UniProtKB/TrEMBL annotation:
GO molecular function: dihydrolipoyl dehydrogenase (NADH) activity; flavin adenine dinucleotide binding
Signal peptide: none
Residue ranges of every copy of the FAD/NAD(P)-binding domain listed in the record: 7-333
Disulfide bond annotation, renumbered to this chain: 45-50
Organism: Rhizodiscina lignyota
Domain of life: Eukaryota
Record-given protein name: Dihydrolipoyl dehydrogenase
PANTHER family recorded: DIHYDROLIPOYL DEHYDROGENASE, MITOCHONDRIAL, DISULFIDE OXIDOREDUCTASE
Length: 471
């Protein structure tokens, strides 16, 4: 970076929030630089998160299907073997292709990419420790903090990413563990637990709450997916907390007890996955040099235009409020740039979908039943099982349902919850419906191609204001 030149925008962090903001800024004609220390772009999501986990989920699902679900389809296969090394290489190929792709997009959109660690020197200057050695400084009229998050550690269990692992170790194990204990039955625990369970581990998930999938997942849906995952071989201990762990010997000991106190138990495992949530990451950023604080959960405090209390410094993505999701980070990257270039940006936080990529997938958008009950909102439910959907039947993949929750008076859609094949793709329609303020009848009167899984979506909507035809 040339020290003299002041950029219109300097972004610290080249994850989804940062790289998307950088591209948008470049497209908008701003002079922009993005500082990333990892050596590759795309952040947690592309390097060690969304992308590698989905590669392993997809390929482990294929293996599981071939092992357990071919005979009844008239497909006879011979010896089936896992080659974990090749499965990991396939994952790495996907990751490399995508991170390089972002680098190409930087060039195409005139984004200066600075490989190094950035820290605030003053309110307009970032000092960069370059990865290749040496230092530089870069000045910005505007600065975005997009430094993301890291996994929350579990006290007493030191992560080594070999047998005491976070998701980063879980996407790179060199052999299939015999026994894996997963601390936390949230999205990471269930996705990575699924991968290793399918590859042959005996997986036990310990979850503090009374349901898996986190509090955003509709309770009815959570119960259903738990049954399905249990059928696939995963074990669950709900309402149970891990009190301590001892990884000093090869066989790791995990002490658990009932969440409300009482019954204790000792579990053993050869790998333990810590998946109790993620926390914002601002270490070494020099926030103290400019007097910026974080809240009690480590988040940078911002206003509706993503401004910190120093208005030309904004924060986006996992480092600030809201769900820690890549597509949320991406929306914020675009909106934050638009606040600079147009004084207007927009993200609808009520219409951000969530997807859990197990098999079947779970996807939802808007509010769930337990939230609406707590708020005293009067609602209606319309649901439709995939077992009554023609395409699911031809695919011999009929587990799950679509569930609409609508305002009892107006029929406006308040939430859509799906557990079933392809739920993650199907939720886009629910998100669009919510974004446009649609009623269930709007969806129910829209033609959906036959035979598709989406017909279950339409029929669940029909059930919310009237009756489904096929159930
Ligand atoms: P990050 O992606 O964490 O990027 C921040 C970047 O900033 C990092 O690359 C870091 O190296 C860099 N950085 C930090 N400090 C500095 C500094 N001082 N100087 C220079 N660079 C710095 N979300 C989904 O929507 N769908 C999924 O399927 C999904 N799967 C996931 C699976 C796993 C295993 C994990 C862990 C997460 C998953 N997520 C998923 C969440 C998603 O990865 C995050 O929400 C997303 O990456 C947030 O983007 P971000 O840009 O805010 O932060
Ligand atoms: P999470 O917050 O989803 O789940 C953590 C779970 O651990 C909670 O259910 C919590 O009750 C439980 N827990 C906490 N302490 C515990 C203890 N001592 N004993 C037992 N259980 C305990 O966090 P997770 O799964 O680590 O994921 C982090 C973030 O990454 C999430 O915010 C998620 O949005 C994102 N992510 C998104 C994915 C997706 O969109 N498909 C995939 C993976 C991650």
């Amino acid at each position: 970076a040339s020290e003299a030149e002041e950029k219109d925008l300097v972004i610290v962090g080249g994850g989804v929030a940062g790289y998307v903001a950088a591209i948008k800024a470049g497209q908008s004609g701003l002079k922009v630089a993005c500082i990333e220390k990892r050596g590759t772009l795309g952040g947690t999501c592309l390097n060690v998160g969304c992308i590698p986990s989905k590669s392993l989920l997809n390929n482990s699902h294929l293996l599981h299907t071939i092992q357990h679900d071919t005979k009844n389809r008239g497909i006879e296969v011979g010896d089936i073997k896992l080659n974990l090394d090749v499965m990991m290489k396939a994952k790495d190929t996907s990751v490399q292709g995508l991170t390089k792709g972002v680098e190409f997009l930087f060039k195409k959109n005139n984004v200066e990419y600075i490989k190094g660690t950035g820290a605030f020197k003053d309110e307009h200057t970032i000092a960069v420790n370059l990865n290749d050695g040496g230092e530089t400084e870069v000045k910005g009229k505007n600065i975005f903090i997009a430094t993301g998050s890291e996994s929350t550690p579990f006290p007493g269990l030191t992560i080594n990413e070999e047998n005491v692992i976070t998701s980063t170790g879980a996407i790179a194990l060199k052999k299939v563990p015999k026994k894996m204990v997963v601390i936390g039955g949230g999205i990471i625990g269930l996705e990575m637990g699924s991968v290793w369970s399918r590859l042959g581990s005996e997986v036990t998930v310990v979850e503090f709450l009374g349901q898996i999938g986190g509090p955003g997942m509709d309770q009815e849906i959570s119960k259903q997916i738990q049954k399905m995952l249990a059928k696939q071989g995963m074990k669950f201990k709900l309402n149970t907390k891990v009190t301590k762990g001892d990884a000093s010997a090869e066989s790791i000991k995990i002490n658990v007890e009932a969440a409300k106190g009482g019954k204790e138990e000792l579990l053993d495992a050869d790998v333990v996955l810590v998946a109790i949530g993620r926390r914002p990451y601002t270490a070494g950023l020099g926030l103290e040099n400019i007097g910026l604080d974080v809240d009690e959960r480590g988040r940078l405090v911002i206003d509706q235009e993503y401004r910190t209390k120093i208005p030309h410094i904004r924060a986006i993505g996992d480092v600030t409020f809201g769900p820690m999701l890549a597509h949320k980070a991406e929306e914020e990257g675009v909106a934050a740039v638009e606040f600079i270039t147009k004084n207007y940006g927009h993200v609808n936080y009520n219409a951000i979908p969530s997807v859990m990529y197990t098999h079947p997938e779970v996807a939802w958008v808007g509010q769930n039943e337990q939230e609406l009950k707590a708020q005293g909102v009067k609602y209606k439910i319309g649901s439709f099982p995939f077992s009554a959907n023609s395409r699911a039947k031809t695919n011999l993949d009929t587990e799950g349902m679509v569930k609409f929750i609508t305002d009892a008076e107006t029929d406006r859609i308040l939430g859509v919850h799906i557990v079933g094949p392809n739920a993650g793709e199907m939720i886009a329609e629910g998100t669009l419906a919510l974004e446009y303020g649609a009623s269930a009848e709007d969806v129910g009167r829209t033609s959906h191609a036959h035979p598709t899984l989406s017909e279950a979506f339409k029929e669940a909507a029909m059930a919310a204001y009237g009756k489904a035809i096929h159930y």
